Amino acid sequence: MSPAMLASKPPSDASFFGAFYERSEATPRKARDDIVRVLKDWGLDRVAGDLLLIVTELVTNSVRHTDSLEVRVNLIRLGPHSLILLVGDDSTVLPDPPPGMPTALADGGRGLPLIRILAHLAFVRCRSGKRAVVLFEVPPDA
Length: 142
Hints:
This protein is α+β, with helices and mostly antiparallel strands. The chain is 32% helix and 28% strand. It has one domain (14-137): Histidine kinase-like ATPase, C-terminal domain (Heat Shock Protein 90, 2-Layer Sandwich). It is built from four helices and five strands. It has a five-stranded antiparallel beta sheet with strand order 1-2-3-5-4, covered by helices on one side. Helix 2 (27-41) runs antiparallel to helix 3 (48-65) and helix 3 (48-65) runs antiparallel to helix 4 (111-118). The two termini are 18 Å apart.
């Protein structure tokens, strides 16, 4: 999707979900459960697998690697084939994963490289807090 398309008027089938979660070990599960419900409501539950992996990874990172008191999750449907996921927290520290995939015995570091494989576009930015932004393309047959 081009930046011009993002700036244009949203399509009539655009939808939005947003939630704030208290930071806890249960937060990733709560966010995942909500995304499952939203995708089902939008008729997109058949594409939940990869998106749920991404949600789980980003929310878990916010819970484990920041001292933020809450995690924000937004899912935006821009039409039949585009979803934008935003996961944010109050941390101003950007993740600094090592380049490439970690070794088979590494304790971590797989999340962001996997997200970059699964998503059409993924990036993290900081302004007044950290936001991970993921553009997820829904296959036309989904």
